[in-house]
């Protein structure tokens, strides 16, 4: 990917842009472009200091709107918002399954454990472990999301998701655990390698780091699987 990043908003403190599916937010792999390096190069070409503060992340296969800091003060303020969970993160997801045919919306609350060696996250049943007298994994982390079914077609269902916590692969893992794996998810579902993951972070809400005013940015998903819902 050698094209210009798609900038949605920019001022002296922040950059808001669309991260394409397939591009990492930040990577240490040599020769692999990521949003951090793309934006640093973008600033350098404009004659600006090539500082980019990464304050939140999206998984590589996920498309979505992101905010980056252009200075350390803005980075600190935005990072605190992320830490305090006051940044609004909203997603669209598509599955071939109904999450719950009796309800149009609901909440998923789970505990997740990530194997760092395999980069795989799973749900652990805390209550079952307690009943069996087994030790609860120390690295089990609470995860919560709200879901709402937006539309169902002949083949797929579109869900609106509000994220309350930011765990690794959280939406993919929780949806799959609830019997509703996402289209194109080869890790937690039945998607094939190379197929685009049907997950888009379409809206982001936060407070501007210096102006202290609420900011909201929204995009429309570009993935093929979303076409039937957004055409």
Ordered list of secondary-structure elements with their pairings:
Blueprint: E1 6-10, E2 14-19, H1 35-45, E3 53-54, E4 63-69, H2 72-83, E5 88-95, E6 105-115, E7 120-124, H3 126-131, E8 141-152, E9 157-163, H4 170-177, E10 199-207, E11 214-218, H5 227-230
Parallel strand pairs: 4-10
Antiparallel strand pairs: 1-2, 2-4, 3-4, 5-9, 5-10, 6-7, 6-8, 8-9, 10-11
Task: Describe it.
With 231 residues, this protein is of the alpha+beta class. The protein folds into two domains: 113 residues, Pseudouridine synthase; 86 residues, Pseudouridine synthase. It has five helices and eleven strands, in the order ββαββαβββαββαββα. Strands 1, 2, 3, 4, 5, 6, 7, 8, 9, 10 and 11 form an eleven-stranded mixed β-sheet that branches.
Q: What's the short story on this structure?
A:
The chain has 231 residues and is of the alpha+beta class. It is built from 5 helices and 11 strands, in the order ββαββαβββαββαββα.
């Amino acid at each position: 990917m050698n094209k210009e990043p798609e900038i949605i908003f920019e001022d002296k403190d922040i950059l808001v842009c669309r991260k394409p599916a397939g591009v990492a937010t930040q990577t240490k792999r040599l020769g692999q472009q990521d949003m951090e390096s793309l934006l640093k190069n973008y600033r350098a070409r404009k004659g600006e200091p090539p500082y980019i503060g990464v304050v939140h992340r999206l998984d590589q296969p996920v498309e979505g709107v992101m905010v980056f800091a252009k200075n350390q003060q803005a980075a600190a303020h935005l990072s605190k918002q992320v830490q305090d969970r006051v940044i609004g993160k909203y997603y669209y997801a598509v599955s071939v399954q109904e999450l719950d045919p009796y309800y149009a919306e609901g909440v998923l609350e789970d505990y997740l454990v990530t194997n760092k060696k395999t980069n795989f996250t799973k749900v652990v049943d805390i209550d079952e472990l307690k009943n069996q007298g087994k030790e609860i994994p120390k690295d089990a982390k609470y995860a919560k999301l709200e879901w709402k079914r937006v539309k169902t077609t002949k083949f797929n269902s579109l869900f609106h998701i509000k994220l309350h916590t930011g765990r690794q692969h959280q939406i993919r893992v929780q949806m799959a655990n609830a019997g509703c794996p996402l289209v194109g998810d080869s890790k937690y579902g039945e998607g094939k390698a190379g197929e685009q993951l049907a997950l888009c972070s379409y809206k982001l809400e936060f407070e501007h780091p210096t102006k202290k005013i609420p900011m909201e940015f929204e995009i429309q998903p570009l993935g093929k699987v979303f076409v039937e819902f957004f055409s």
